[in-house]
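To the team - adenosine-5'-triphosphate complex, inputs and output below.
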Amino acid sequence: MPEMATNQLTRQLLRRLPQRIVQLLRELGRSADEKGIGLYLVGGVVRDLLLNRRNWDVDLTVEGDGISFARQVTNRYGAGLALFERFSTARLVFPDGLKVDIASTRRESYADPAALPDVMTGSVEEDLFRRDFTINAMAIQLNLAHWGALRDPFGGREDLKDKTLRVLHGRSFVDDPTRIFRAIRFAERFGFRIEPDTARLLARASRTNLVARLSGPRLANEIFALMKEEHPDAAIRRLRRLRLLRFLHPRISPGIQTERLLAVLPQTIGAWERRWAELSLDRPLLWVMALLAHTSAPVIAGTIQRLQLSATESRALEWAGEKTSRIAKILSSDAFLRPSQIYRLLSRLPNEAVALVLAKGLVSSSKAVGIARLKRRLTRFLECDRLTTTTISGDTLKEFGLRPGPHFKKILDRLLDERLDGRITAAAEERDRARTLAKQYS
Ligand code: ATP
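Output:
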């Protein structure tokens, strides 16, 4: 397509952004003109405009000093400013909550594979050349005289049309192995094929030990970003085929059981979110738990350590394996279970672990009646028993002359169990019962 026509198209595309953003971009374009510097919209938002997908992440790059431009804009609009000088980037937060990232165009050199790059100022073309894939290496100029001009030096637009993911050069995955995961993420999200040379480079990089050099948080970031996508099961299959899961732990190799679990997870998450919307689920975390569902405790512990997960994530992940399988089995069984027994099985579990119990039950119980039992028991726990409390507290026990100690918890647990099982129904009854129990311990 001739350049004029292309630019007309991108100008039209810019109009698809919310009015507020278009207006701001025009004003910023004018400010950049006044300073005599080039200003561009770059990265994912350009790609998504061309794909007609919603994305309001405004990423700007300035040919010149991005930080000083960001400072100037901040003053003019009374926006908040956060600076990341190491990467010469700034984030502006406007009074209405709109966020805009501003960077300086730069080129990078990788002294050491998988390490963070050395950064130097460069032209917009050089800035695009340091990017991961051609579809992410386009810019739209915002200076008013060139408003809407598309910079596409590597054929990103053609690749978008051909639904193709392509790296810009042969060392791309070696320079930055996080791109291996990004390739899987974009290929799955957009349903793109990975261009054959890129696929070969990707497979070669996956066979080396490059990913092992990534720090825990960087690797975790990529894994969780994959799990945030709409179809993490497809991404996990690719990770397995490329033998990339070994970088989480050498002994993760999901078999048929895990496959089945991953297959029911979307349905489980959907049902949970429709029914128990107030019980929030960390979906990416749940996917990672499902991935590890049939591994041993040491493998789970090793993965937590490798990814340097937070305390909350680690606590949830510890339930991924045998512990939730056992609970799913008990809850689907025809054994008689008092509500208090079910409560004791489930009350310490984070929501993701309870959802995993449900998913595990769905795949492991061979009989519909087992699944129905499990669902009934979980529903009762989540909708009713989970919220049950005793009316008396430790203070009441003190009133009865009991000295505080570990027996307080025993008594209160006992009262709660009796409430759950319907043996105590009224507050007065509970008080009497507490008094009797207190006597046993005084
Ligand atoms: P998403 O829609 O997932 O946010 P995105 O393309 O906006 O996708 P970001 O991670 O926000 O992804 O990155 C913004 C841009 O920065 C990318 O479009 C790409 O040009 C560049 N980029 C990000 N990570 C890398 C990387 N590891 N290597 C090279 N370029 C990168």
